[in-house]
Fold:
Amino acid sequence: MNMTNFWTIFKLLFSNAFKWNKSKGNGLRIALITVIAVLSCLMIVGFTALTAKLMPLMEKHNLLTHALTYAVFVTMFLVFLFGIVPTISYIFLSKDTEFFAYMPIGQNTVFLAKLAIIYLLQLYLAAVFMLPIIITTGVVLHFGIIFYLCMTLVLLALPALPLLFLSILALPIMSVIAFLKRRGTFTSIALVLVFGIVYALYFLLMNNLGKGGNADQITDIDSLFVNFFSSVEGLLTLLGPLVSMIRVALGVQQTIFGQMQSFWASTVLNLGFFVIFFFVAFFVVLKLSGMIYYKGALAQLESIKGKSKLNQKDEIKTVFWTLVGKEFKEMIRTPAFAFSCLVSTVMAPIVTAMLSVNLKLDKLNSLTDLGGLMILIPLSVVTMLGAGFNVGACTAISREGDKFYHMKIIPVDYRLQVKAKLYVYKIISLISIVLSLTVYAAFSNAVTFALLAFIFMCMYSFAFTNFVALFDLSKPKLKWTTPNEVIKRNLNVQLPSFINILVTVVIFGLASSWVLLGALGLKLHNTVIEVVMWAILYLISATLWIIFSYILKIKTDKFINRIEV
Structure:
């Protein structure tokens, strides 16, 4: 690999990836960045306070390595979660693939330059979570410079591990998919399946972590933490390379071979294991990228020609259903878009299942005590992730990009076109809701409760879908080069997602107020509380649905007419 070419391409990609949009209307963007910064600061303060309380306790019980390893594990999962779409879309499905294909440089150089850009983006995420923990641990336990240097290496290596895993996984998958006719569709399906499997495995692992300790010894919050971290021994083996560096940072004379008598011998072995592992992993990815990446990425640009045959038995579709089919095909053919639009159908049921099992909802049947709060927690998750998390509707217009003019020139009413688009994403939300509530009912034995929740969530989902569509119609992001820009760097996705969280918290805060009143001694029958709670939820969701449906109906033509192509 030519390092000169690498740095040239890296600087080009870096300047493009992190450039600031100087167009007008950045007020909302700045406001949102300010809100995110404030929330990040609050989160950092929370991490710092928890770490200051927790780490001395863990050191006292010889569980400091376990606690730091657990923090690394959770951060790595977040890197994987937020890195899977950028890795696939930016490396394999970017519009600049053809441009780089004709340059006289090795394609593994291009691959590693793109991977380095994604690494920097994920390093920021890892730093937000890990730096407060590292700094606070070093301060409260009075560690020296060696601790900070070693933990800095852990932080720098932390995003690399899931990204290298994603790269090794993606290279053969994309190579095989390149030979398929509907490669975009198969790539989308593969993305969702990989995410679902990893997400489910993560929650299963998290669910089993706390079961290895002795529950009889839990008498207060301190013993609860000690019991939990004593049960995460398996993570020390799973994250061996990073754990070896954590041990060096803490001066622990433990290696993958067991306890060592010599401090220097254990330090050398741990450092050697850390360096050799990442060197080998990097070498494997480099070799695979040289053999597979070029063909796999370039094949995404090729079109497989085939003859279309008209079946005389096919009926002529109505204009509306033709538009619905077109919207679904356009969405599913672009893996980054398909993943973002379909991920809720995987994520919401898995989270609901894990919460329902851990909260033991099958034993909670009353809303008149604090147990009622446990019944509402999974429902709030379904509302937030299933009914309200709708990236497809948030980007229904923005994803048209430079093809938006098609909407303006085809002889079809604007409102019908928008209605057809939203129909697809309302169905996706319905699928997510049905799957999640089915899981909820199965683990809680609350079928009637799930059916009542279904009515509310449908109305809320339709209302929120109309709202986010209005948001995207008012100012779509039509100038983009990679799908990632539409999903990750689009105010029309970020702000509605933030609003969805706030609205969900407010709605279920109102619903849970009756639970709290019951817990405080208000003697109301359980049925009365349920009737009042559902009446509130139905009234709010139905009102929002009617309002946003009406606004969408009267504003669609105006918004589309004023958009300049």
Remarks:
- Residues 303-316 have pLDDT under 50 and may be disordered.
- Residues 265 and 362 are 53 Å apart (CA to CA).
